[in-house]
Amino acid sequence: MKHILVLMGGESAEREVSIKTGMEVSKSLKNLGFKVTEFDPYEKQLFEIQNISPDIVFNALHGRFGEDGFIQGLLELYKIPYTHSGVLASSLAMNKVYSKKIFESVGINCTIGDVYILDDFFHSEIMNYPYVIKPINEGSSVGVSIIFNKNDRDNFLKNIEWSFGNEILVEEYVPGKELTVAIYKDKAIGVTEIMYQSKVYDYNAKYKENFSKHFVPAKISEQKYNEAMSVGLKAHRSLGCRGITRADIRYDYESESGDLYLMELNTQPGLTPISLFPEIAEHAGITFDEIVDFLIEDAGCNK
Question: 266 an active-site residue?
């Protein structure tokens, strides 16, 4: 019987959703007949993973240190196979600046934006309204704000609690539909359209019940549906990802061009009861246990 260690929790801003993902994965692994050990780096020292000596680590950590190449590098040193993408792909996907450069280099449409020092942002108008503010290397829309006008900017500066370093990513705001594409076994398996009540598809809209509605499949034309699938798969391959990923896309359907804009690629999609990836997979006829079993089969080092 293979022994699987499930990494979950951690110290990132996404600790809560990571625990939920880890619990669902643990339940599935037990259903599949594996021996399971749950491991929270917030409560234990990472070197203890070596002492436990699992056959495979299922990485259910989200956010910094979990999906940015850090834990992947450590597991490579320990020579313990792990799920999801490797060191480089994870690091690149988590950094919105560098991943965008790669996406654009392979012909993927991305929003216009730049990185600014916080002081420059505080003391000057750097972009015409509306625009979006993001941390460079956080996931789950942590720290994201949309600035529609001067009043929004003043409120942001007045109430700022920025704990994401001395740099800030500022991008043009793209109106339209919020889409997400699931990649499984190196194929795009579906597109979801997301509607939400808040101004931005933030952490609450993603992970709190009744904060958003999901339409599977997305209510868009067949042409745009296929185009979104193509964008998601190209993004996945351009960074050298493995396992499963989720591509987040904005569809400016009211403009004359009707362009799609890739916002980011998530190498550790949430696997909670209300997460997008398992919802898309279910519509494609893929069960939760099948997702987890595939990730175990796909686990490795130096892949």
Answer: yes
